[in-house]
Design brief:
By secondary structure, the chain is mainly alpha-helical. 61% of the residues lie in helices and 0% in strands. It has 3 domains: 69 residues, no CATH class; 55 residues, no CATH class; 52 residues, no CATH class.
Length: 196
């Protein structure tokens, strides 16, 4: 009996590790992310993407935005900057009060490059401050109108909606416009934008 259980456990473990995405699963995901190379994804990535798609309570725009946030398809999609504590401390020497998670990675990378450059400290400070604080988010991250930003912020006042990516704005507006019950809008927006 023990031998049977061990054999069964080993078979299930090996079968799970060898599982590959089926043609149907690949087509389903690529319907939302046409540029993605789903065949190269891990099983965990495929399963996570399918769970998002089949959740049933999201619009197509919400699904696409969530998948793009999970799996960046091209260099133009906004992804929050990933920055080490050391890099943040270095940049903080030149500018105060910057929320790096609300800036696109290329902007932060450029600021880090300036910090490592041969420029003098005054020149570094000027360029880094320009990069990190003079960015006009509505021009670089999304094309939302002032009215759309105000509408989103009316449901989530602690959010600076001008810093959202284009996809996040589209999904947020979709949530607002497609939700019948006014009381459900704020929690759905906060859940989508990971705001507690």
């Amino acid at each position: 009996m023990k031998r049977f259980m061990i054999t069964t456990a080993l078979t299930l473990t090996t079968a799970g590790a060898a599982m590959a995405a089926t043609e149907g699963q690949i087509n389903t995901i690529e319907n939302y992310l046409p540029e993605a190379n789903v065949a190269a994804w891990s099983d965990t990535q495929v399963i996570s993407a399918l769970n998002v798609i089949k959740s049933g309570d999201k619009s197509r725009g919400e699904i696409e935005a969530q998948l793009k946030a999970m799996y960046v398809v091209d260099g133009e999609n906004f992804t929050p900057a990933m920055i080490t504590e050391g890099e943040q401390a270095m940049l903080d020497m030149y500018v105060d009060g910057v929320d790096y998670s609300m800036l696109p990675q290329p902007v932060v990378d450029q600021a880090i490059s300036v910090a490592y450059s041969d420029l003098n400290n005054d020149q570094k400070a000027e360029q880094i401050e320009t990069l990190l604080t003079v960015v006009s988010p509505t021009e670089t991250l999304n094309r939302a109108t002032e009215g759309e930003i105000a509408l989103i912020e009316s449901y989530v006042p602690e959010l600076d909606a001008s810093l959202l990516s284009e996809e996040q704005v589209v999904v947020a507006l979709d949530i607002i416009n497609s939700t019948d019950n006014e009381a459900e809008i704020e929690p759905r927006l906060k859940a989508y934008l990971n705001i507690s």
